């Protein structure tokens, strides 16, 4: 095992009266042979105030001090570190933040407050040796995820650990033992006590779990764990309604929920959230009308409600809304080239992601990894447009607003004129010359 320890951190460890340990993901991942992250989590028995004083003397800059939890965030200018004094925690109603904290000197008791044994292995920075009070290395060797104490107590204390169970199993390629799974399932309702933004952060990490350590389909495995421990009914009830809701067997092997999970499985990382939610309108539409028709419009509204509830960033909300609204576009592949060209220009910024989503949606239908016929058609048309030099934005037009001033009385009409010219070039990119655009601008200006 090799762990890179910055010289500044080694120096700080040498100046403390007690041992300073690395703990958590950095140690765990190093034991697994994964690429080391530089999320340095530190621990010792030294109280936070005293630690701050010594760290400052060692030219560290203190960024934040939380006396209640004994936590210090600091930096050496290159790396950021988080230190926490050994402690015992007690929780209220499954909330992530401990209600009371007791500082202690016992490393084993500190290990017991953590979630999983593989995350409770300590590395003595000065002595360069491991301290493993709960035999977490056994779990790492066996690739199994077990809790530091009785599993039911661990999940009962902190509902966020339910999401962390799925994330760690996914990113590490571990299996959770049955007692851990059963305890998580029994305590699934505890997730309701967790702040929505924390849930969203964990969900995003699960959706991209395969990117962490290059474990194939890790994101799908994580989602299946969330399904198995009944988390979806609390965080995404609209999606959970799709379980056992079967679809047209000519196009779908799986029920609505499984289809959504498999869309994520096959999706490019950039569209996995949209893949998870793209059919979220189906259960509501089916229950209300008996049909799936129109689920894209229903889903568009639901996506906004769901992601707003989870306090997702506005840019993500808007992108998922648009992709959900568009995912049925040209489903049969029989729209005219003229309509498609105009659509491609209007939605160019999201076009590649729509291609990704359509492909994943197609593949999830019957686990078919061949190229979606619609995507193949779209790619051919888009390539032809690009070869013609079709402009996909106003900036790509071979004319600007200054040249259009003679044709308009009101400057606000310049923008209208530019957009008309952009549409004019959609059907034939060779029209995008200054001369042709000026001639056409005169014609368009007469109708303003």
Q: Could you please describe the fold and organization of this structure?
A:
The protein is α+β, with helices and mostly antiparallel strands and 448 residues long. It has helices at residues 7-15, 25-32, 48-57, 107-112, 136-142, 151-157, 160-172, 178-186, 196-207, 209-213, 218-228, 232-235, 237-240, 256-266, 272-277, 281-289, 295-309, 314-326, 337-346, 348-366, 373-388, 401-404, 412-426, 434-445; strands at residues 21-23, 40-44, 61-66, 71-75, 80-85, 87-90, 100-103, 122-124, 129-131, 144-145, 175-176. It has a 7-stranded mixed beta sheet with strand order 3-4-5-2-1-8-9. Helix 16 (281-289) crosses helix 17 (295-309) and helix 19 (337-346) crosses helix 21.
Radius of gyration: 28 Å
- Rounded to the nearest angstrom, the distance between the terminal CA atoms is 72 Å
How many helices? The count is 24
Percentage of residues assigned to helices: 40-55%
What structural class results from the helix and strand content?
alpha+beta
What topology, given as strand order, has the largest sheet? 3-4-5-2-1-8-9
Q: Round the mean pLDDT to the nearest integer and report it.
A: 95
What's the overall geometry?
globular
The tally of beta strands, per DSSP, is 11
Contiguous runs where pLDDT drops below 50 for at least 5 residues: none
**What percent of residues are in strands?**
5-15%
Q: Strand count, sense and closure of the main sheet?
A: 7 strands, mixed
Quick summary:
Helix content is 52%, strand content 10%. With 448 residues, the protein is of the alpha+beta class. It has a seven-stranded mixed β-sheet.
